[in-house]
Amino acid sequence: MTQALSQGAVAPELAAEFPALALLQATVERGSGSSPPEVRARLRDLSDRMRGAQALALRRQPVPWAYRVFFRHIGLDPDHDRVPVEAAALERLLKGSFKSRNLLDDALTIALVETGVALWALDADRVQGALELRAARVGEPVGRAPGALPSVPGRLVVADARGPVAVLFSTPAEGHGVTARTTRMLLYAVRVAGVPDIHVEEAFWLCRSILLGEREAD
Amino acid sequence: MEVLDPAGVAAPPISRSPATAPLRGVDERAARASLRAQVAKLERDLGLALVGAPTGVAAVLRAPGLAGPRLLSLGELERTRDLLAGQLGSVRRALAEVAEVQQAKRLLIEAMLLDPGAHRWVRVTHADIGQPGCRSWHVRPRLGLIGMLAGWWHVKVSSGCPLPGGRRPCRAPRTT
Within a domain: residue B166? Predict the structure, then answer.
């Protein structure tokens, strides 16, 4: 069972700078596991569709372009720190196919390649309160694992009520990601200017339907 | 390029009067919005310029991220804009150089066809003129050594890429 898509908070200084910026999230009442054959087959089909020409043309498409622009706006170089869908395409070219890892990773990859919108997953039971997109404060560590290093002040992070759980556009900090013991997952995505809502919603819908083993017609 | 017109992003005049401080903030927001729009346009132009560019042209673009995702200051936004403008300029120059070389090769093909004898053994491939495929134009003598001695040169146009199956297997030698 999945709860409806909800919107997390965006810090006022960020919202003033990027009015279209949004943090969207949804809970999925299950953990990960191994991928069933149909998900692995779907990943193979996706690999066949993503060839060099498509990968090269990605940066001209509206959604990857919107993320590239946002990366520039927040001080990232998308030719170095690649936007998620370009990183996935590059991995596909280097490895020859999208490799199946586990149900969650496969679902995230399929949703990413199909829509261009990246989703990340947190262990919902380790998240306190609502998620927020904000700048890290002085001395604040990313993640609550013992030995977590303090973040650079001002770095953009995804935080819950107790502190940052991930750097923006990065994988969740240690201790917050989905593990074999996870029973509830919190999916989140970052929408930026130029990315239509329908793409974000479709990414969540795709990921949810794969995780819950629903048929697309449902 | 109008997007790089410095007049559009000029810093507002700085006033020492506290009464005008909020106004200055508003002006900075406008400048930041303008810079972000310029960055977006430059990023699009860069993407368009790079599509179809030969391998190697994009190599000029890689630059490590500075300090992770953060809210950029006005100066950092200006530097980002300038960096992108510089990259776009470099890519366009590189593309223009490549186009010049390709044009010269096209002219060379015409000259080879007009006067093969003056271009002995010269070979131009599709890659040289920026075309996909394996076709090539090669000035060779007719009838091998005889043509070479007699000065019978002609342009041999290859038939394209090898078949995916590779070479036909050699016939087994006759035993009888």
Answer: no
CA-based nearest residue to A61, from A106, A117, A108: A117
In-domain check, residue A80: yes
Answer yes or no: is A218 within a domain. Answer: no
Containing structural domain, residue B70: 2-97
Flag if A75 and B80 touch (Cβ within 8 Å). yes
User: Domain span at residue A132?
Assistant: 6-211
Report the 10 Å Cβ neighbour count for B59.
Answer: 9
> What interface predicted TM-score (ipTM) does this complex get?
0.84
Domain count, chain A: 1
> Which of A73, A83, A48, A100 minimizes the C-alpha distance to B80?
A73
Distance from the Cα of A79 to chain B's closest Cα (Å) equals: 6
In this prediction the pTM is: 0.79
- Regarding beta strands A185-191 and A119-123, do their DSSP bridges make them parallel or antiparallel, or are they unpaired? antiparallel
Closest Cβ–Cβ partner in A60, A69, A154 for B40: A69
Structural domain count, chain B: 2
With beta carbons under 8 A apart, name residues in chain A contacting B50.
59
Q: Is residue B44 part of a domain?
A: yes
Lowest mean pLDDT among A60-64, A175-179, B48-52: B48-52
